[in-house]
Amino acid sequence: MSYQNNPNGGYNQGAGQNQGGGYNQGGGYNQGAGQNQGGGYNQGNMIQDQQLSMWFRMVDMDQSGVLEAEELQRALSNGDFTPFSIETVRLMISMFDRDNSGTIDMREFVALWRYIEQWRDLFRKFDADRSGTIENRELFDAFRAFGFNVSPKVVDNMVSKIRILDGPKKSRYSKGINFDRFIYACVSLKSSVDTFHKLDTNKNGIVNLDYERFMILQINGK
Ligand SMILES: [Ca+2]
Ligand SMILES: [Ca+2]
Ligand SMILES: [Ca+2]
C-alpha cells in the first residue's frame, strides 16, 4: 500500500464509518486478496488465505463457526506477546462485521486481517526509533502524514488517554503506545475528524453546537 499516493490512504479504506470492511473496496491490496485472480502474487495470498482459515478454526474455541470478541482478541497479536486490547477488538468488529451479527465470520476475518496487515506496515514506518512503540512525536508525524492537522497538544491528550486505558502497570514500562492502540488512535481520530466535517456545514473550521446536539454527540459519538 502506498499512502504517499493518497495522503489519506491506508486506513481510509476500512476506517470510514460507512464503508464497512475491506473486500468490496478498490485499491491494490483488495485486488491481491481476491480469490479468483491468477498470477504468482495472488497464489501467495491464496496460501495465506488457507493459513488464515486454519488460524480462524483454531481460535474459534467453541467451534461456533464465527469469532466472538474474546476469540478475535486471541487471534490478533501486537507482535510483542501482548494481545489486542478489547477496545480495539470491539472497534475492529464494528468496522468489519458487515452482516451486523456481532461476530466475525471467515469472510469478515480475511478482510479484517488484511486491514491489520496494512497497519503493521504503517506502524513500522512511523516507529522511527524502532522502539516497538509509537511515542507522541511519532504519532504526530503519522497524523500529519495522514492529512490530519492536529496540534501536539491534541496528540499528548490522546496518548495520555490511551495510556490510562492500558492501566498503571503497563504505562510504567513504556512511553508510547503499542500496535493495537496505534490503530485505535488513528481510527478514533479519523472518526472525530469526519464528525467535525459533517457538523462544519459552512466549512469554516468552526462548529456551532446547541446543548441538545452536543449531548447527543457525547452519548453516541455521532
Ligand atoms: Ca466462536
Ligand atoms: Ca458478522
Ligand atoms: Ca517509537
TrEMBL record:
Residues 11-42 have a biased composition (Gly residues). Keywords: Calcium, Cytoplasm, Metal-binding, Repeat. Residues 1-44 are annotated as: Disordered. It is found in: Cytoplasm. SMART domains: EFh (SM00054). Its main location: cytoplasm. One of its GO terms (molecular function) is calcium-dependent protein binding. This is EF-hand domain-containing protein. Residues 47-82, 114-149 form the EF-hand domain. One of its GO terms (cellular component) is cytoplasm. Transmembrane segments: none annotated. Residues 1-10 have a biased composition (Low complexity). It comes from Smittium simulii.
